[in-house]
Design goal:
alpha+beta; 215 residues; 28% strand; 10 strands; Jelly Rolls; 3-stranded antiparallel beta sheet
């Protein structure tokens, strides 16, 4: 499964020379300043960017720890990556269904190359595995199953991690391949084996929480 979305970094916050105070009107005004929604959006973008940086940094640090301990501990089973696949950081995702929690291991796709390749050419994937697609801006882009050999389910989630759409997708080894458009705005997506969300009781409104891997 590959994403058709282009990578765009977050706004860094305020533009050069601008301060939080410069966009506000007279504080004695009885109405909210017209610029307040802009400041709120910038604040949300800044918070999300810091969260993603911390999350990805944790993955890198834990990945280094795993490598250094490789001689002492047996590596956990992973899906074999096909030839030509880019390297992916490893992480874990906790899905909170309200009455239950599901912990799965994931490859993290957060660059253009990683998102474009996705799960292409993989012949199988363990039951507790998936791929987490990370975006640095809100997007409505569709996914495609081009060169993907296994059926998948995908959950799209928003800024807060709330699942806003779940789709089932079929393998497509030759063009033309259909596009799977969620029809919603989202910040990330989680792919698993088809039917896994139903088996786990995962529904729209549940939450996806990326976690650093424990040692």
């Amino acid at each position: 499964m590959t994403s058709t979305a282009a990578h765009s970094p977050f706004d860094a916050g305020f533009s050069p020379g601008e301060t939080p105070e410069s966009g506000l009107e007279d504080p004695n005004s009885p109405q909210f300043p017209p610029s307040m929604p802009v400041l709120v959006r910038r604040w949300q973008a800044s918070c999300m960017r810091r969260f993603l940086i911390l999350f990805l940094s944790a993955l890198i640090l834990v990945g280094c720890s795993d490598s250094s301990n490789g001689n002492n501990e047996e590596s956990e089973p992973q899906a074999t990556r096909p030839p030509g696949s880019p390297e992916f950081a490893r992480g874990r995702v906790l899905i909170d269904t309200g009455g239950n929690s599901v912990l799965i291991n994931v490859d993290v796709a957060e660059t253009d190359e990683q998102r474009a390749f996705g799960l292409m050419q993989r012949e199988s994937m363990p039951d507790d595995e998936g791929m987490l697609f990370v975006f640095f801006e809100e997007t409505t882009s569709a996914f495609t199953m081009r060169n993907t050999l296994i059926p998948l389910s995908i959950a799209f989630f928003d800024f807060d991690g709330e699942i806003v759409k779940i789709l089932d997708m079929e393998p497509c080894e030759a063009e033309p391949c259909p596009s799977y458009d969620p029809g919603v705005t989202y910040r990330g997506a989680l792919e698993v084996n088809q039917g896994a969300f139903d088996e786990w009781g995962v529904e729209i409104g549940d939450s996806v929480n990326p976690l650093p891997r424990s040692e």
